[in-house]
Protein 1
Amino acid sequence: MRRVIILGSTGSIGTQALDVIAANPHLFEVVGLAAGSNRAAMDAQAEAFGVEHTALGAAEASQLVRDVAADVVLNGITGSVGLEPTLAALESGASLALANKESLIVGGELVTSRARPGQIVPVDSEHSALAQALRSGTHAEVRRLVLTASGGPFRGRTRESLRDVTPREALAHPTWDMGLVVTTNSSTLVNKGLEVIEAHLLFDIDYAHIDVTVHPQSIVHSMVEFVDGSTLAQASPPDMRLPISLGLDWPNRVPGVGAPLAWTTASQWTFEPLDDEVFPAVALAKRVGEAGATYPAVFNAANEQAVLAFHAGRIGYLDILDTVSAVVDAHDATGELTLDSVYEAERWARSAADERLHR
């Protein structure tokens, strides 16, 4: 029986995690819940699962993790505000089921230096797929990681054809419904760029050996290519309950958590190269990741500001990446990487993005 704390319990990841736990009461016990602002929904969850310890906001969530003993902390908080709860979870000694990719990306070595081997278990479907495939070989046997991308709603479009894209169109993702910022990031492929940085930090593979391929069916969630020419792919219907269950019970598999593929039914899976000219976010993210320090924090914060401006009708769709690129180019990272330097870099990036957006 694993004692579990869920951070971001009222969001998509948190509610699906509770579904997994409710279906497997012999495996898991919820001992703590934290939400961003929806206290009523969290209180209802606490009553349903008999949870005594709850928290509201990132600061309270961090304290909850320090105060309540758990085997697993699932961080499903959205945004870089999840960084301190991530650090608290690592310091507690619990296994960290990480759905809050931003905390790892902006924290970088602040996070990885505090984690013991295997303590961070990725919950993103792509990184869960990589973790599963990597169990088949040693680090030295890995040639490259291949992350799959659905291509979003604008796959196959030219850059010029994206100039007049509307917010409604940007949110029409063909596979996932992930909220305003993340769904927009999937359309620009910023989300995939962030996942490349995350893959580097999780698995210690050079950026030159991390690729992205477009796979519209979203059945193959990522692949690992080994030095002997073999490639192992993890395939399953798109259902986040599978990677969530692995995050909660790693390395064990929870029976019946997801439906298998129908191998007796005809189907086709396709793979296409990424068009870096139309979708420059992945190449920019690799450059940001290689620069390290506070550059990833600047990339993420500037993008969030630009996405919000786009949905407010203040800028066009192509201005999102143009703004992010300009802010990254203007950044000058100096000094030691600390929590304060990360937060200061984020404040600077948001201000710099706003200044450019107001012009």
Note: DSSP finds 15 helices and eleven strands in the chain.
Protein 2
Amino acid sequence: MRITFIGGGTMGEAMVRRLLSRKLIAPGDITVSDVSQLRRGLLSREYGVNTLADNREAIKDADLIILAVKPQDLAQVMGEIKNPAPQQVVLSIVAGASLSTLQRGLNYPYIIRAMPNMPAQIGEGMIVWTATAEVGQKQKEIAQSVLGALGEEIYVDGEKYLDMATALSGSGPAYVFLFVEALIDAGVHIGLPRSIAEKLAIQTIIGSTHMVQKTGKHPAELRSMVTSPGGTTTEALLQLEKGNFRSLLLEAVAAAYNKAKHL
């Protein structure tokens, strides 16, 4: 399998790094096309992959073409690589670019669209993806292996779910980072040294998440197990409920979803 990345930025590099570290592909079978000579030099030195400045030339021998460019650069890129060779598959991770937009812009039917989130950069991502009806099972399996190198992946039949995933898992890391930040600040507020507050907050988030994942219990059940009647946790949760914590989070995700639909 030969893969060409159009765009060697943060996410493109992360995908290259993960594919190589998982030994799913050899460096010589990866080509990265990027407008920046500095990026091309860095990727070539660091990973031993082929690099080019010409997008059309870069996709010539590719089985899988991965679009990893900024949304504002997509139209130009699609014009440059329009009408790929038969049976090449295009996988786009460009935010907000629908399957229909990609099909029209490329004049090509074999399109896969994926929504990776930020933790994909360290192999702990959540990737939701879908494909046009023309994409075959073998091509989907190739895409699944590539996306699986970034973390957990879920295939969905309806493209509408990608906008929902954008609001929940795509933007989700920002919600979590904000919560961790606030938890650390709360620890400092009550008198903990910041270094200790950071350690306590981060490990508490990691451990609690793993509890949900590994026990299979509903989060409400686990929360109940921590919450003693009349205890400290009960008092803290009461304050969160007074502040409409649940409703605010729901409204935040809904707002992100509505924004995603209109991008």
Note: The mean pLDDT is 96.
Protein 3
Amino acid sequence: MGIGGYLLVALIGIGTVFLALIFLMIIIKILTYQRKGKVEDALVVEETSEQPAVEPVLAPGSAGELKLYDTDPRDAAMCMAIVADELGVPLNELRFISIREVKE
């Protein structure tokens, strides 16, 4: 087999690879187009359905969100435990909104 045969085999191989890539590109475009239509349909359904606002689910005994300002979480937990102990009230019955370290 001469150089012309080798070039023909190389061209057939390269052509096969390019045809496979073009085929994959077409399949991806079709699937993307279909998915885009489904996503738009889902968005329309979401916008039209009127559901009440869902409240966040809190852990049993928790009383909401706590904001810490310049305070280590470990120190905040210690302060909350001390306050609950001094008041004689279980910690899950108290509600702390924020804790801030006072620097002197």
Note: The chain has a mean pLDDT of 80.
Protein 4
Amino acid sequence: MITKSELDKLVEKYETKEFIKDDPIQFIHRFSDKKEAELAGFIASLFAYGNRKMFISKLNELFECADNDILNYVKDGDFSALKGFEYRFAKDFDIIPIFKILNILYNESEGLEELFKYSFEQEDFLQTAVDYFYSRVPKTVGQGFYHMIPNPANGGAMKRMNMYLRWMVRKPPVDLGIWQFMKPKDLLIPLDVHVGRVSRQMGLLKRKSNDFKAVTELTEQLKKFCPEDPVKYDFAMFAFGVELNNKKVGV
């Protein structure tokens, strides 16, 4: 198994501002206003799957549709610019309803922070947050909607939502740390195929499926190295994977 000191060295090497420019987290760093940053981060996290260059390009296109004024765009409620907008599984009839629900949220409350704070205080955190969207979704949406906002009850890893929470809760320089109702110790590792494979190679994860049980297992293992901030090792997983890949191609 990889040691704590080896992991910490990788974190120190990769948890830098240089990480931001090639990661979807770049979108939250474009906004100085707290509400704009949290909203931009949520939207960016929904699209953060598949080829990285492709979804970052698509997100740039989306933010251009909003004139890079994402909070006012959502609160205004005119999403006609998104007609015909799609990315992989998600079509415009999946995407526009999400924006309409966000319009309700930001016009009737303080927004995503209030929603997630309330959800965190409930017994079933992620399910409560997701149910806010599910209770308002029209029947016209397709599977793209449910791919972007998956149901925790299905036992999936909830990778993008856990990644979004990391962005909001952990401290800078990479993450923002603008939400105070949670502590870094409360976060779960954002687990995808890449992180699952790397964590098994490191000897940190035994479960073969990349599901929510694996998320729990890996997070608990990382808490042994850093109880107060286990998810900081997300950077180390990324770095280890990059270094392994570079060795394979002879870089």
Note: Residues 4-249 form one domain.
